[in-house]
Structure prediction request, 563 residues.
Amino acid sequence: VICAPVLAELVANYRREVLLSSALAAKGIAVLRFHYRGTGHSDGSSAQMTFDSMCADALVAARHLGEKAGTRMIAFAGTRLGGLVAASAGAQTGDSPLVLWEPALDATRYFRDVYRAYLMNNLKENESTSATARSLADELSASDSFDLLGYSIDRPLYESSLGRSLEEGLGVAPRSILLAQIGPSQKLKSAFADLQDRLAARGFRVKAHAIIEREAWWLTGDQWRTEETREGTRSLVNITSDWLAEEFAKRGVSA
Amino acid sequence: VKESLEVSANRETPAFFPAGDNVLFGILTQPVSPNGNRAVVVLSGGGSPTSLSRNRLSTRMCRLLSADGYMAMRFDYHGVGESSGEVGQFHLATPFSDDLVAVTEWLKTNDAHDFVLLGSCFGARSALAGSPFIPELAAVVLICPPVRDFAMGERTSTRLARELRLTDYVKRALHPRVLRKLFDRESRKTYKRIARAKFQTISSRVMGKDSFRRRDTPADSWLSDTFVRRLSDLAERDVPVLFLYGRGDEFFEEFEEARSGRLGAVIDKGRHLIDIQTIEGRLHGFLSLDVQDKVLQIIGDWLRQRVA
Prediction:
């Protein structure tokens, strides 16, 4: 089950998820992609969306995939905020393998980063910079939603996400995790390296990869290229599909 | 607008259909109460090219229009989203008219009789480019259509090439900030692109394709010929057209500039059917919720008025 990111990142990651699904299907692994309530092609309004509703949607998707494909084991994959959702949903389904693409390590920091993208865009467009001393919390204290570059950040999602961390969401049962960093550096950033160490100490089997790719989740620049032509995307898809096929094989789940 | 969004996903059907060698993906929203088997095709811009568009604007657009009695179809271009194939580049000189025609052909097999095309930016240019191949056109809505031809990522470099003189370039190139940025690989790529665009502009002048050499060449030779021709065709076919821009859009400035030349003549000729509406600020890219709501409102009102 692929847990998509949200807001602008849903669109930025869309094709990569499609390519991953095709690669997995080619290996005989059934995949389900879905849009959370209030996002994409699904029903509902973003104003009703919460972190819990996102996790519940992921579990509904997993159940649906189980029924449709008759699968015995379900892995979860998530990107950015979807990584937190995948971790939490996966924790409720035994020791299912987990794929994390550039995951948000905690939701508070995630929303702070998203707000920074907004400030950076304002700077780029030479608009007022008076908001630099403000935070998303300040913006949402005065209103139920905040218009962030044409995306609505609604208070229910924001407030229900605060304090959620990836490590906590993973639960206590150790699992196999593929952690992919997507960025300009070959070296794993310290936050991911530390996470890997801490999880290993808790018995999780974490394999980490640094995928070299200039990714602008929010601000697309002049360097736009199709995903198919990106070396980073190809590596990401190959590494992920190979790793998942291996994990399923280890558990005796054949394609 | 909000009430119209109550139209739910269970009125929608995902579809896969052929377009040349590719298979395209789209979602058809059935009308709440049908309005003469009329279908709207929503074409996204190149910056957010999936069938969602920014903040699922295309989803909201389709659901809004289905409440007005239209079948509404949003789709992924080839190589985008769920569709097969690969996109080489988004270039306004070669928009995806084949994809659009494939969508309308598929809609015809689903009882659609005539069409409203609704596109933004690259999608607007695809709508214009595809219009001659769709005889059953009821209306065309063009949101922020660029009037020049350029590839995605080359908007600024090609605009500067047109607006700045060579001496301006040299002055800019010697600015300390620019020199500092030469150490950055990505910045070097950008500068290379800017230099290439200027070189192409100068060569086309030297080769006599611009007014520098040939006095009979129109001053608006930077304007897309296809754009003018397709709009002229629509005027001759009596198809209502809505242009919708933000007054702060760079593309609107160019549109206004172009109206003093050949484009203006076409718009004058079709003035009883060509409407131009603008909103305050920037519209291109739908970068605010307020702009998105205004766009939904304006399009809904215009279609109710023009395509009763």
